[in-house]
Amino acid sequence: MLFCVIHLLDLVDDEIVTGEVNMFVADHFVVSLRSNSQQDFLGVRARCEQEPALLSQGTSFVFYAILDVVVDRYFLLLDYIESELEAIEISIFEENAGRKNIERLYNLKRKTLTLRHAAIPMMEFIGKLHGGRVPALCANSQEYFRDVHDHISRIVSVAEDVREAVTTAIQVNLAMLTIEETEIAKKLASWASIFAASTAMAGIWGMNFEHMPELHWEFGYPLALVSIGFVSLSLYFRFKRVGWL
User: Fold this and answer.
1) Contact assessment for residue 164 and residue 87, using Cβ atoms and an 8 Å cutoff
2) What is the pTM (predicted TM-score) of this model?
């Protein structure tokens, strides 16, 4: 008799819910106990009934069919993760999207790790069902288990690539946030410089020293306004030209 525990992954409201199925496989029966999952294996029975020649191999084919269904569902989840990553990558360079993207990327990274943690143990035990010394129960179905093993190996490999891509995307988003903050700092510094110059000039004329002839001049006030405006506009166009505003 063989006994194994397989993780079942369900996507519910954009979150991965992890369940499991415990399987007992013997010469004349296959018993599966499912918990914390909405998945069912009704399609497995229909498939086996449609292929009596393969079903004649015994319970090993039923075992293979269940594993194949679970791996196919892993593929669906992997496709969802890749599609989500592509959508985030498109929006990376959108304005004011950095913080939201980082949150989405961390959630995606967590989903990818959940998929890997479910797939890696499954890949390891399926690798023992083909080639070399295998349980007698599975001896006649080794090519089918090898096919499932190839599929789960590809899932693990792609999931690892996705995880690295997510890490890279997070770094790019952090770099974009730094650039945005630098641009904001430049704008604030530019406006601060403009107002500082105006404030300095107004402060000089506001000292009220006795010997400041321009304060008593008829055109002193208009000249002060023109001077402040000229300096402010000069600084504005200067910062505009260098890309700070």
Assistant:
1) no
2) 0.71
Q: How far apart are CA 70 and CA 41, in angstroms?
A: 9
CA distance 166 to 224: 57
DSSP string, 65-111: HHHHHHHHHHHHHHHHHHHHHHHHHHHTTSTT-HHHHHHHHHHHHHH
2-181: CATH homologous superfamily?
Magnesium transport protein CorA, transmembrane region (1.20.58.340)
Please give the single-letter amino acid code of residue 156: V
Residue environment code for 24-34, b if the CB has 16+ CB neighbours within 10 A, otherwise e: ebeeeebebeb
> Are 36 and 20 spatial neighbours (Cβ–Cβ below 8 Å)?
yes
| Amino acid occupying residue 141 | S
Sign for the pseudo-dihedral over CA of 37, 43, 46, 52:
negative
What the block records as the tokens of 128 is 């023992």
pLDDT in tens, 132-177: 788 888 788 888 889 999 999 999 999 999 989 888 888 888 887 7
